[in-house]
Amino acid sequence: MLATFFLMLREGLEAALIVGIVAAYLVKIGRRDALPKVALGVATAIGLSIAIGVVVTLTIERLPVVVQDGLEGVAALLAVGVLTWMLFWMRRQGRALKGELEHDVDLAITEGTTLALIGLAFVAVIREGVETVLFMIPILSFNGTGLDTVLGGVLGLVIAAAFGWAIFVAGVRVNLRRFFTVTGTVLIFVSAGLVAFAIAEFGEAGLFVNAGVAFDLNAVLPDRGALGSVLRGLFGYRSAPTPLELLGYVAYLLPVLVLFITDRPLIRRPAPPAVAG
Amino acid sequence: MSVAARLGRRLIVAVAPVALVAVLAACGGGNAASQGPATPVPSGTIAVEAREYAFTPATITVPAGAVTFSIRNVGSQEHEFEIFKGDQVVDEVEGIVPGLTKDATVNLAAGDYTFVCKLNGHDQLGMKGTLTVTGG
User: Fold this and answer.
1) Which end of chain A has fewer surrounding CB within 10 Å, N or C?
2) What does the longest C-alpha to C-alpha distance in chain A come to?
3) How far is CA A273 from CA A141, A262, A269, in A?
4) What is the pLDDT of residues A200-218, one digit of tens each?
5) Other CB atoms within 10 Å distance of the CB of residue A12
6) What is the pTM of this model?
C-alpha cells in the first residue's frame, strides 16, 4: 500500500504544485474569470491521459522505451520553456508594481498570457498523467495485488491534489510580493529538476550516453523513500544523478536563481543619481 | 428546495466513497478467485521474481528474438526492471509495486546484457543479473 501511495504521490505532486500556483496567480492578478479555463485545461489533460493510457495498454501494452522517454523529455523541456518565460514575465510585472501595491492588482494581462498559463497547467498535468495512468492500470487490474494497493495509489493522488489546493488557498492569501518571491524561487527549482529529468529521459531514449554517478545519497535520502518521493515529485530530486544530469540542473539553476535574486521584482530601485552639470 | 438540494448533495457525498469502496472490493473479490495458487506462465515467457535485494533467477539465457519477461514483485518495496546493453537502456519496466506482476516483451539481438533495479540504488545492494542472448 505504502509503495503505491508514494508512487502516485510523486507522480501527482509536481502537476498539483504548478496548477495551484497558476490558479492562485490568476486570482491575484484579478483574472478569476480565467479559472474555469484552467480547470478545463486540467480536465482535458486528465481525460487525454486516461484515453492515451487505455489505448496504449489495450494495443501495444506499453509504449516503446524510446517513444515514452523521448515524449517525456520533450514535454519536460516544453514545461521548462513556459515556466522560465512565466518567471521572467512575473518579474517584469512585479517591477511595474514598484513595491507599493500588494493586493488586488489588476495587472494588464493579455489573452496570450492567459492562454500560456492555461497551456502550462495542461502540460504539467499531461506530462505525468499518461505515465500515472500506465502505472495505475495494471494495479487496478489486480494483477497479483490487493485492494490496499489500489487504495494506496488513489490516496497518493488525492493527497497530491489536496496539496495543489492548499498551495492555491495559501497563494491567494499571502501578499503579492511574498507570492512572487516564494513561487518564483520554488518554480526555478522545479524547472531545474525538469532540465535534469529531460536529460535522463533523452539519455534513456538513446540520444546520448548518460551514464555514471555524480554523487550517491541513496543511503541517506533515497529518492523513492517517504521524503525523497516528495522532493523528487516537487523538484526532480535524484539521490544518484549522473554527472550530465547534475550539470544540467546546476547550469539552469545558478544563472536563473542569481538573476531572480539579484534583480528582485518587488523592491523599488533607488532613483538614478542626477547627472551633475 | 434548497434544503432538499443540500440534503441530496450530502447524500451523494456520503454515499460516493462507500460506492467506490464497494466497486473496488467487488473488482478485487472477483479476481481473487481466479488468481489461484500460481499464475501459469505461458511458454516462451521468462518468469523473474524481484525482492529486496535480488532478482531470481539472476542469470538468464535466451535465444535472440522476442522475449517476454514476466516480473513479479514478491518483496515489500517498489522495484524496477531495466535491461542494459553496456551503458544504454534497452528496455525498462517501472512502477512494479509489491505483489504486482508486469510483463514486458523485448526484441533482443544476440549479445551480453545486464538487468538491474536502479531504484534507490537497489542495483548496488545486489538487484542485478546477467542476460545472455544467443544467436538465432
Assistant:
1) C
2) 85
3) 71, 20, 11
4) 999 988 888 888 899 999 8
5) 25
6) 0.79
Residue carrying the nine cell digits 514483485: B73
Task: Print the SS3 string covering A30-96.
Answer: CCHHHHHHHHHHHHHHHHHHHHHHHHHHHHCCCCCHHHHHHHHHHHHHHHHHHHHHHHHHHHHHHHH
Number of Cβ atoms within 10 Å of the Cβ of A255: 10
Any chain B CB within 8 A of the CB of A140? yes
Q: Are B115 and B89 found together in one domain?
A: yes
- Strand ranges, E, within A106-248: none
Same domain for B53 and B108, yes or no, is: yes
| C-alpha distances in Å from residue A14, one per residue of A231, A232, B13 | 10, 9, 28
State which H helix or E strand residue B82 sits in. Answer: strand B79-85
* Residue B35 pLDDT exceeds 50: no
Do B33 and B85 fall within a single domain? no
Chain-centroid distance, C-alpha A176? 21
How far is residue B117's CA from residue B55's CA, in Å, rounded to a whole number? 9
B11 and B52 share one domain: no
Domain that holds residue A74: 2-262
Tell me the CATH number at B62: 2.60.40.420
Average pLDDT, chain B: 77
Question: Which residues in chain A touch residue B35, judged by CB atoms under 8 angstroms apart?
Answer: 144
Domain count, chain B: 2
User: Distance between CA A184 and CA B131 in Å, rounded?
Assistant: 47
Cβ separation of A61 and B119 shorter than 8 Å?
A: no
CB distance A218–B90 less than 8 Å? no
In degrees rounded to 5, what are phi and psi of residue B47?
Answer: -85, 130
**Which among A196, A198, A197, A168 is positioned nearest to A183, based on CA atoms?**
A168
The verdict on a CB contact (< 8 Å) between A144 and B100 is yes
CB contact under 8 A, A149 and B77: no
- A207 located within any domain: yes
- B33 and B51 belong to one structural domain: no
Whole-number Cα distances in Å, A268 to A107, A259, B39: 17, 16, 69
- Domain check: are B31 and B77 in the same one? no
The answer to whether B93 and A3 are in contact (CB under 8 A) is no
A228 contact residues in B (CB cutoff 8 A): 120
| Predicted complex: ipTM over 0.90 | no
* C-alpha cell at position A70: 523521448
Residue A189 is predicted with a pLDDT of 94
